[in-house]
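User: Sequence in, structure out. Go.
Assistant: Echoing your sequence, followed by the structure tokens.
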Amino acid sequence: MSASVKQPAFVVEVPYTTSPKMTRYEGPLIDPNPEPRYLDAKRRELDLLGPELFAQHDTPQTRELISKAATALNCANALPIERIEDLALCLNEDVALLENDVLTAICFCFPSSWVPAKRLGMALAQIHHPVADGERLVQASPKIAHVMSDPQQGSFRRYVWTISNSAELSQHPLRKSKAIPKRVEDLYYRLETQTTMPINTSLGRASLFLVKVEVCPLMTFWQNPEQRIQICASIQSMSEAVLEYKNLRSIKTLLLGND
């Protein structure tokens, strides 16, 4: 990672949990100055896999909500932004729109082992259903979706981390690396910063879901003894289902053997 690239936050929790941990957030919703490396990477991914990465319900209501979100995020140009992929190309973050708890638009250029376009039309509980040990997350999803879209509640933020064998921002199933890590130096820390933004509208309830993906060498944290212990303890606490879901079985063996 070059000196000009900001280091991701270290948010490894012990014990590891998939339970919803959204906390109220009053800071900036997006990076104020989109970085060329993110925008260039998004364009490359869209050129490669565009139809799998973005989709939207092409209705006047959805287009209006995307335009309102773009204005709220100071992304509006001379012409209104009404396509979700156009909004995503103004931001470091990936974006999704929920209307009345249903996903009606999404552009995720850097997904984590799933196909964004296939989630269109799903409620939040359906989207969360594949998550290993995610029963509490699925049960809480209707309430989460309702709170996300309530302007009185404001914005919320949560972090999702993992360890990967790839430095690529995209972990789309067709872009997954087949490299077999043999050393800690072959591994990468991957962090998703997930932020919600309610959209004021008379068209029902709506919210934007923003995801900033960051990747750095695992050694960034592994060389710190306290952080290394925390990483190992968190992985040790993961269930077999979570290890399988996050593709961490062999990585667990590698890391605990190097502890």
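User: And one key feature?
Assistant: The CA atoms of residues 95 and 210 lie 5 Å apart.
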